[in-house]
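Page 47, continued from p. 46.
Same chain as before, 144 aa.
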Amino acid sequence: MAELVSMEREAVAAFIAAEKKKCWEPGHVDCCMVLANWAMWLGHDDPAPHLRGHYDDEAGFRTIIAAHGGVVPLVATCVAKIGGKRVQRPFCGAVGVLGSKNNPDRQFGALHDGESWRVRMINDYGKMCATPLAVWDIGAGAAR
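Result:
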């Protein structure tokens, strides 16, 4: 089991290192699209083709979030396309939405690295300490 956890952490670290080399590009590389990128890294089909390239700034992203009723329902729709399952607790490789329950402008897509939540920001992957609003298993771990 320890070997599996180590492999998962290595996979997340390799993904983050590769994604850090990409420039911030709304609709392709941003805090929510990175969750779809992680799913594809794991071998899934793109769970967000209906979003990819359909906005190119914050205003466009906010319009899409509002149309879905927040980031949680937006990510839930994408996760469902690849058979992801909602879980109660985060684990290495899980995806989630963090932030304000009542303010979608303060909700962020995040990837759990085994120790903390990592959020794609303009120039880096920051660690974020926040209560997850929702957490999903998208198949990062073979033993789940």
